[in-house]
Write a structure and sequence with these properties.
The protein has 416 residues and is of the alpha/beta class. 39% of the residues lie in helices and 22% in strands. The chain is built from 15 helices and 17 strands. A hairpin with a 2-residue loop joins strand 13 and strand 14. The radius of gyration is 20 Å and the shape is globular.
Length: 416
């Protein structure tokens, strides 16, 4: 796959892995590192089904580190980025999480892509008192003082996407989703927002991440005749659905609104005839024309080249998550985990490529902009923006001000 060749030549050139069952050597930036550097951990899939997403995320955290080091670093010290390629394997997430916390002794970890990977490593970082940033859109509900979530939640994006779909195309929805935490819970949110909008859900189907054959489901959708298909499919294997959908002659007959399409570079890897018209809602699109977004994308391309996978919300939130952590360290004047946490909890904000991003003390999530966009000729046409969206879903179950010792993921009751 083209994206994997890129990662081997470029993103992974700064390190290598050990053969056999031994722990992989961390991928450390090549610039000279003094003994008293501040180590920052990164756990991302740079290969496997989720690798395309991880490559762009790894690129933007490298950019953020390089920018900070060029400006003098933190507390008079340079930043050393230590990354392990988790290869889309949950077992490696758990293994390398312990490596970062116990052997590498990093000050913070930015990592995880799927919710399953987050829930594999979050307890490890809780156990070993390591600050953790999860920079990915997800289903909401994490309530953990040692964890900060900088991606969007359903209240910020799905609550924009579903009403748009119902108002534009009709009230009958057919939901398809990945069969793990994110897909299962997001499907419930989709169903809630469909019902809230006066619509009906005709059926909901879940698919393991390794499924690539969707002919039977496409036949069911044809028979059901919904107004819209709502998709929360995840990963490169599930990209097959969109190709098979077009091959079955369904493109243009029943529209698709997705909470995930584009996150593994589908916009570039499948033909416009298969992707045009798909509508999504995210906290960032590379096509945003604001000065901050333009400067960010130009910096990423200048450092890593135009062949880097699409710069999605995942990549932008990773960049912004690192900047939030760095501002927390500056405000605290310390790397101490609790002092940095308390600094972040003051409502600390950064102006990032997506706009202003502000830490919400009660949830450790962020208030951030959301956008609606439509796929058109291998690009996203952003046609609506929603400023300063709060993580209202997680706020309904999480209050770290009242209970700072909380450390769990709530499955939010989304029944109407």
């Amino acid at each position: 796959m083209h994206e994997f060749r890129l990662s081997r030549r470029g993103l992974l050139q700064s390190g290598a892995t050990l053969a056999g069952g031994a722990l992989a050597a961390p991928l450390v930036a090549r610039h000279a590192m003094a003994a008293d550097t501040i180590k920052v951990g990164s756990l991302l899939d740079l290969s496997g089904p989720i690798g395309s997403s991880g490559q762009a995320m790894h690129a933007t955290i490298q950019l953020a580190v390089a920018e900070l080091n060029a400006s003098g670093g933190l507390l008079g010290r340079q930043i050393e980025l230590v990354n392990y390629d988790t290869q889309s394997t949950i077992q490696l997430y758990s293994q390398y999480a312990q490596q970062l916390a116990l052997k590498d002794k990093v000050a913070v970890v930015h990592g995880g892509i799927t919710s399953a990977s987050r829930e594999a490593i979050r307890p490890v970082f809780d156990r070993y008192a390591t600050l953790y940033f999860y920079n990915v859109l997800y289903e909401g509900g994490v309530c953990d003082r040692d964890c900060f979530c900088t991606g969007t939640t359903p209240a910020q994006t799905v609550n924009k996407l579903v009403p748009y779909a119902l108002d534009t195309w009709g009230k009958k929805a057919y939901i398809i989703a990945a069969d793990y935490n994110y897909g299962q819970i997001t499907a419930k949110w989709m169903g809630k927002y469909v019902r809230d909008g006066g619509g009906t859900v005709q059926a909901t189907e879940f698919f393991p991440l390794d499924v690539t054959e969707f002919a039977a489901t496409i036949s069911k959708i044809q028979q059901a005749g919904p107004s819209v298909v709502l998709s929360a499919l995840v990963g490169s294997n599930h990209t097959a659905f969109y190709r098979q959908w077009a091959a079955a002659g369904m493109k243009g007959k029943i529209p698709i609104a997705s909470t995930t399409f584009g996150l593994v570079n589908e916009i570039a890897t499948i033909a416009p005839s298969e992707s045009d018209g798909v509508v999504t809602s995210y906290g960032y699109y590379e096509e945003l024309s604001t000065p901050a977004s333009t400067a960010f994308t130009q910096a990423v391309r200048a450092k890593f080249g135009n062949d880097l996978p699409y710069i999605s919300e995942l990549a932008a939130a990773t960049y912004e998550g690192f900047k939030l952590w760095a501002e927390g360290v500056k405000k605290a004047g310390s790397l101490d985990r609790m002092k940095v946490t308390e600094a972040l909890e003051t409502g600390l904000a950064v102006d990032g490529p997506s706009g202003k991003v502000t830490i919400d003390h009660a949830t450790h999530h962020v208030v951030r902009n959301a956008y609606l966009a439509k796929a058109a000729d291998r690009k996203w046409e952003v046609f609506k923006s929603y400023p300063d969206q709060a993580p209202a879903d997680t706020a309904a179950v999480c209050d770290l001000i009242k209970d700072p010792k909380m450390s769990k993921q709530f499955v939010i009751d989304v029944k109407t």
